[in-house]
Write a structure and sequence with these properties.
The chain is mainly beta and 362 residues long. 3% of the residues lie in helices and 39% in strands.
């Protein structure tokens, strides 16, 4: 699950280390080719033992992390990525897992995306040894993209618009059961508007009641906000360019109920992505373009643990760091990642295509 973190000495130390000059590691570099020298920060690749694409990632600690990806694959590590256990739900090989939210090393909820019955939610309480399918979408018009939890009991999942409004699914028992919330408090969607199931970060929460939904594919890339666990929503335009099915806001991260970062752009490799990041200091009511944005499309973003000003953004062409709350970004690494997540014990993980998974080392 996404965690609310506050300022502290450990986070400041991590941010300071990240601002030091670092040697970038390309897509095929990892721990077997050196650490980049000294204490410079770098992604250290871990061998996942598979070539599937992991757009779903939930980091629990420096030692424990969960991955969710194509071909119905779920992996879990309990030793910092040295070994990965395949804990995929039986019979799920045809499903596309795009988001996973873990409460610890034993309990997790994973979302499969797609039209109609391809959208499903599974839950485990024993580290993936067994799974229970707790939701299967039966509406052909719905397509679920992301899931988030406020705590170990209360969570939401979101679908692309159905009958002109985004659909919100709610659980009050840790994902054991789900119900569709009324749509009366949801603003009307734009024509063509949808969420991007690219990193598991199109729906994120902070604290016990606040949640944000990121959109694209329409004339304007927008962020919707609810302060009552999805019952009523407000919506705001962002400066991140949209106007095309491939463009918009792909991910958001809030370190508290007011300070947020949005990233996105155009996911097509041959298209530029100017203004690929924006910041908010009022809970998403207004957004400001980054003065120096990431140089290309970014699909995932997370705040560094225990920091008020530092965050990481990732995408197919690299990883970028901000140390001023998202106003300026600089590239740390040129390897390909789809999503990123950090933990309270100062660990940051990233995952992506061709089985790539890495932990940030210093």
């Amino acid at each position: 699950m996404r965690r609310l973190v506050t300022a502290g000495v450990c986070g400041l130390a991590l941010a300071a280390t990240l601002t030091a000059p670092a040697q970038a590691h390309g897509p095929d570099q990892g721990s077997d080719q050196g650490s980049g020298g000294g204490n410079s920060p770098h992604w250290e690749l871990k061998n996942s033992g598979t070539d599937v694409r992991f757009r779903g990632l939930s980091a629990v600690s420096r030692n424990t992390a969960w991955l969710a990806g194509s071909k119905g694959t779920v992996l879990r590590t309990a030793d910092g990525g040295k070994n990965w256990r395949n804990v995929s739900p039986p019979g799920a090989a045809e499903l596309e897992f795009r988001d996973i939210e873990a409460f610890d090393g034993r309990r997790a909820v994973v979302l499969a995306i797609g039209e109609g019955e391809a959208s499903r939610i599974f839950r485990t309480e024993d580290g993936g040894a067994t799974w229970t399918e707790s939701f299967r979408n039966t509406d052909a018009k719905a397509f679920y993209d992301c899931v988030t939890f406020f705590d170990s009991r209360h969570g939401l999942a979101m679908s692309d618009p159905v009958d002109g409004r985004f659909r919100i699914l709610s659980t009050r028992d840790g994902g054991r059961s789900w119900k569709v919330l009324p749509s009366t408090g949801m603003p009307a969607a734009q024509t063509g508007e949808a969420g991007f199931a690219a990193s598991g970060q199109c729906l994120v929460s902070s604290g016990s009641r606040d949640v944000w939904l990121a959109t694209g594919g329409a004339p304007r890339g927008r962020v919707l906000h609810s302060s009552d666990r999805g019952l009523t929503w407000t919506v705001t335009d962002t400066p991140i360019p949209a106007g095309d099915p491939a463009r918009g806001v792909f991910a958001v991260a809030f370190r508290d109920r007011t300070h947020g970062i949005a990233v996105g752009g155009d996911y097509r490799a041959d298209q530029a992505s100017p203004q690929a990041a924006a910041t908010s200091r009022d809970g998403g009511r207004t957004w400001t373009t980054a003065g120096t944005p990431p140089p290309a499309y970014r699909s995932g973003v997370t705040w560094l643990p225990h920091s008020r000003t530092s965050a990481l953004a990732v995408g197919p062409t690299g990883t970028d760091l901000t140390t001023d709350g998202g106003r300026t970004w600089r590239t740390l690494d040129t390897g390909s990642y789809d999503t990123v997540d950090c933990t309270p014990d100062r660990a940051c993980w990233a995952s992506g295509e061709k089985g790539r998974v890495a932990r940030l080392e210093r």
